[in-house]
Design brief:
Pfam families: Spore_permease (PF03845). The structure is a single chain. The chain starts with a helix and ends with a helix. It has helices at residues 2-15, 20-27, 33-55, 63-70, 73-105, 112-127, 131-158, 164-171, 180-188, 196-199, 214-234, 245-250, 263-293, 301-318, 324-357. The longest helix is centred in the last third of the chain and has 34 residues, at 324-357. The chain is mainly alpha-helical.
């Protein structure tokens, strides 16, 4: 089951190529984005490393079980309620954002409400399944989509339209101090490991997770490509004109002898799959937290349907109040709060693990 840990990390890295991370970096491209990129790698990896090393000292236990054994009841309840909201919002923002992207770039004539409803149904049906089934679903999506994503990235890097001089211009601003927005965005690509708060239940006892050193290497590549490739295609100034820079970048590429000439359609299909996978992972964790918060109901078959219905209904209603700019502002604020929350989560697990071994 160790491979699923890497799946959790890498699927989060991939999902954030399209949404808010590139736009946040591009918005602050002259105001510390490069320094934020440099700092995000060690900060994100340190949080991941200490979390993984600590939570593996609780074999077969998720975060709710750890809290139940080692903290007072009121602390456990407060943590669970707070992180239910955090994980729910992660899935909700992705669903609403991709519904808007689908409407704009695939079928402008269809109602965005219909798209949100369709995405909510798909994500909700998978999120309520067992943790093992959710991981298997994620694995299938990764195996079928990642090779094509790697090919798209290769085409982008080697395309004659890619202007590396523009990338070098951005690199000259590396000494500018980063903003909290850019640090939060940069470290978010590592955040997939936090899903171990539930999936640690499935890891084999006393099984070490090898090759952790590969994660910062892949993370560096993901951050560099997600930030600099749009700059290379559109220039240092024009790149800031796009709401979703990577969508516009993919539409700049062609496959001359492909069945589908416009890379945009291939790119949209791939990243819709990846993003929906990230959403059902987040909602699954949220559902499991709710079950532990109300344990008297968790074994009843209808209870997960009730939770999914509430999550989906709230997402559907909230989608009426967002447009592209307000969703970006909300997503940025969420990433900022998320970094504080992630640090608090890691410190909590580290402290409880040290207390256990004392």
């Amino acid at each position: 089951m160790v491979r699923y840990f890497y799946y959790l990390v890498f699927i989060n890295m991939l999902a954030n190529i399209v949404l808010f991370v590139p736009r946040i970096f591009i918005t602050h491209r002259f105001e510390g984005s490069m320094m934020a990129l440099v700092l995000s790698i060690p900060i994100g990896f340190m949080l991941l490393y200490f979390f993984v090393k600590s939570i593996t000292k609780f074999p077969g236990q998720g975060f709710p079980e750890i809290l139940k054994k080692h903290t007072p009841g009121w602390v456990r309840i407060c943590f669970l309620i707070y992180f239910i909201v955090i994980w729910y919002l992660a899935g909700m923002i992705t669903l609403i954002a991709f519904s808007e992207i689908t409407k704009k770039y695939i079928n402008p004539d269809i109602s965005s409400m219909f798209i949100v409803l369709a995405f909510v149904i798909v994500v909700g049906l998978i999120a309520r399944l067992s943790s093992e089934t959710v991981l298997y679903s994620m694995e299938i999506l990764l195996i079928t989509n990642v090779p094509v994503i790697a090919w798209v990235l290769y085409k982008a890097i080697t395309n004659e339209s890619m202007q590396y001089d523009a990338c070098m211009e951005i690199a000259t601003h590396i000494l500018n101090m980063p903003t909290w927005d850019t640090l939060s965005a940069g470290t978010y690509i590592f955040t997939g490991y936090t899903n171990l708060v539930i999936f640690n239940r499935l890891l084999q006892p006393n099984k070490k997770i090898p090759f952790l050193w590969t994660i910062p290497i892949v993370g560096t590549f993901v951050l560099l490509t997600s930030f600099l490739i749009p700059v290379g295609y559109h220039g240092t100034m024009a790149v800031n004109s796009y709401i979703y820079p990577w969508i516009s970048t993919s539409d700049s590429m062609r496959v001359e002898f492909g069945l589908v000439e416009r890379v945009l359609f291939i790119f949209m299909l791939l990243y819709t799959n990846i993003s929906l996978a990230g959403s059902f992972l987040h909602w699954h964790v949220g559902i499991e937290f709710v079950k532990e918060l109300i344990p008297i109901q968790k074994d009843k078959p209808y209870f997960s349907w009730v939770i999914v219905g509430l999550m989906g209904g709230i997402t559907f209603l909230l989608s009426f109040f967002f447009n592209d700019d307000s969703l970006f502002d909300f997503g940025t604020a969420y990433l900022n709060v998320r970094l504080f929350s992630e640090i608090a989560l890691v410190l909590t697990i580290v402290i409880l693990a040290r207390r256990k071994t004392m």
